[in-house]
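#struct-pred
JK: can someone run the complex with 5CA? inputs below
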Amino acid sequence: MDSWVGHEVPRLPGRSGALRLFDSARQAVHPTDPPGPATMYVCGITPYDATHLGHAATMITFDLVQRMWRDAGHQVRYVQNVTDIDDPLLERAARDGEDWKVLAMRETALFREDMEALRIIPPAHYVGAVESIPDIAEKVLVLLKDGAAYRLDDGTGDVYFDISAAPRFGYESNLSRDEMLKIFPERGGDPDRAGKRDPLDPLLWRGARADEPSWPGGDLGPGRPGWHIECAVIALGLLGSTIDVQGGGNDLLFPHHECSAAHAERLTGAAPFAAHYVHAGMIGLDGEKMSKSRGNLVFVSRLRADQVDPMAVRLALLSGHYRADRSWTEDLLAAAQQRLDRWRRAAAAPAGPSGETFLAGVRDRLTDDLDSPGALRLADEWAERTLAANAGDRRADPALQRLAQHSADTGTGSADDPAAPALFADTLDALLGIRL
Ligand code: 5CA
Ligand code: ZN
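RT: done, structure tokens with the ligand placed:
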């Protein structure tokens, strides 16, 4: 399906070094090391209730990955999916008496608009589950023939993956079997389904039901795909048997990414499927988990309708580290708007402290597991020094006076580089996606 429209990204002088990211499988920060083009697959929306701030935060996280790779000189091959057929989508459409296809189209269109407003660089391939069904069915058949999958004998036509065919099962999430058994049913799994070989075996293909949409599956019989195989097949088809980053929110650590990896590794024989499994923290509202059932979702489109600057939304989400579960609050947004105003005033100054030093500092922070709070602090410092040095009424403001004196004393903040404000703005635009 169509992706969204991107913006031009300013070119910066020099290059950043290797991007280091926390890998959930190895439980440590390791450098990403793409041999050539860098490859990334990010789990996209199931198109209902989009785009809430949790979705936005996760998309911004992987947007930074793409930006840092590009800045390091890599070509980036980025694929994102849309789960445009799955139980939650059908349930929502039924609840609201709506055609599920229309719901999916509308929510996907809104998501694209929100991504553009937030200046997320579009993926090279934006792929729906529905358009991938022939490929998925083919791969499920391969798993069946290979003995890694089995069909239930209850006449439903449902096909499950046999996790005993994945000897490393559990390596990605590092969970004990007890923990897996607890989480599995909370995240779409069906441990109690009669006839399964293992309660944790995930669904690969759901045989057609009279009241549900279904597609021809060739020798598989009619039905629709399971969730984890969808992402495995889309990623393998467009990116090859192994990828540099598999991304999503930390709600996908298990079972989704564990099962996707197990499917992909069984299909290709190459392991690990992803060199880095990267997970963004969950965004909550005022200290509570943002969830549909609590009805406390905050939507990007709602904020845009209220004339909130999307750059302030982006900045507010970047003010916390991507891996931390964190809360959205009104105060966070207000602080981001003030920060943005300050940076805009500073970028309009005739000169400022070294732009090269600022750029090097931001590169240093972001290559260190995307330390965006650290990068934002550097921008604050640069802006404060610039405003202090350029303030006409410096004497009227003791704080600015002290800053100017400090800059002069230490020699760190000589604010006489006329090219610095432009490089400050370009750095924020290119690396953080914040356009002043
Ligand atoms: N379609 C599947 C992935 S294949 C899915 O999880 N869809 S979703 O609409 O529920 O979420 C879309 C993306 O946003 C996923 O990467 C998910 O992990 C992430 N996400 C969902 N809720 C939040 C949240 N509250 N905070 C941060 N990220 C979230
Ligand atoms: Zn996925």
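RT: quick notes.
Residues 19-285 form a domain with the Rossmann fold fold (CATH 3.40.50.620).
The CA atoms of residues 229 and 260 lie 6 Å apart.
JK: thanks, will look after standup
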